[in-house]
What does this fold into?
Amino acid sequence: MKYNGVTFVVEEARKMTEEEFIKAHLGNFWLDRDEETRRKMLADVYKRICGKKKK
Amino acid sequence: MGRIRTCPGGNFATGKSVCEIDYDKIKALVLTKHGVKLSYSSLEDLRNACHADVPNRAYGFPTVINWEPNGGEAQTSQVGYGPNAYNGMSARNDAFTLDKYRHYLRAQILRNVDEVFDMYLIDIKNNLYGLDDGTDTLAGVPVTIYPSGNDHPGASDKASLVVNVVYQNVEEYMMNLDVVPLGYNALSAVYGLMPVTLEKVGTDGSNYKVVEYYGKGDATAKFGSLIADNVSDVITGASAATYDSANNYISFTLSTGATAPVLKKASVLAAEGIYGIEPYVAS
It folds into this structure.
C-alpha cells in the first residue's frame, strides 16, 4: 500500500503489532517531519492495512 | 513387392509467392539454449521470454548494426573428366556487429563458447527468422558463438564488439529456413539482462543503490522508483520502501530477522514492469 510516497508491504505489516510497526518504520521515512507527526502517519497506515488496532 | 526407393527430388516447387517476403536488415540476435523454442506470439511473450528463468530464457543482443556472412558457399568438385558436381556447403559463420563495444559482454560471450545455442534473428521490419521443424512454432538455428572486435578506437575504426555465430549445419539451415512476420515492434521486446546488486549507502540506516554488477554503473535513477513502488512483489526482506530522488537511493525498512533487502528473479521483476535487470548470483 502506498502512503505519502512510501510503499508498505501489507503482509509484513500484518505480522506486527501497531507499536512494532511504528517502531520499525519511524526512523526511515518522512524524516523532514517531526516525530509525533510521523507516529500519527504510521498509525494511520497501520489502521488502513490492519483495520483495528492489533493487541 | 520388394523394397523400393523414393526419389528425394520428386517434389520440386519453383514457384513464387503472391505475397513476397520483404527481407530486411538484421537488427536483433536472440539465442536460446539448444532445444528451447522461443515464445513470440505477442510482444509480451517475447519480452517475457527474455526474462524467463533459465533454461527457458531467451538471450537478446540488441542492437545489431551490421551482419556479415562468411562461408556457406557451395563447393563443387570434379572427378576425373566428369562435370563439376555439388559437394556440400563450406562451413559458415556470421558476424553480428553490436551498436556498442562492451567489455563485460565480450567476457560473457567468451565464457559460453562451448555451448550450443539456438539462434533466431529479427530484422528491421519485425520478421523473425528461424527453422521450420514441421510445427507451427519456429525452431532456432543451432550455433556456437565467439567474440571479436576492437577494444579501443584506432586510426580508422571505433571500438566494436562482434558476436560471431558458427552454424552447426549450414545445409540444414538453408533447407529449413523460415520467416514469420511478427506484426509488432519486436525490437522493443528483445532484452539482454544486466545483473545488479543492491549496495548499502554508508554504514547507518538502510538506504540502498541499484548497482550494475559489471562496470558498477549506478542504475538507481532508472529502477529505484519502480523497485520501491513494487517492493511487495520484487523484494524479499523489506516491510516498506521509498525512492529518495534527491539522494538517488531507495530507503528500505527491513523485515524482522532480515539483514538486507534481496531482489527477486528477473521473471518476477518483469511481471512488475522492471525490464533488463536481474539479481547478480555468484557462479
Notes: The first strand of chain A starts at residue 2 and ends at 3. The interface with chain B takes residues 2, 5-13, 15-16, 24-25, 27-29 of chain A (CB under 8 Å).
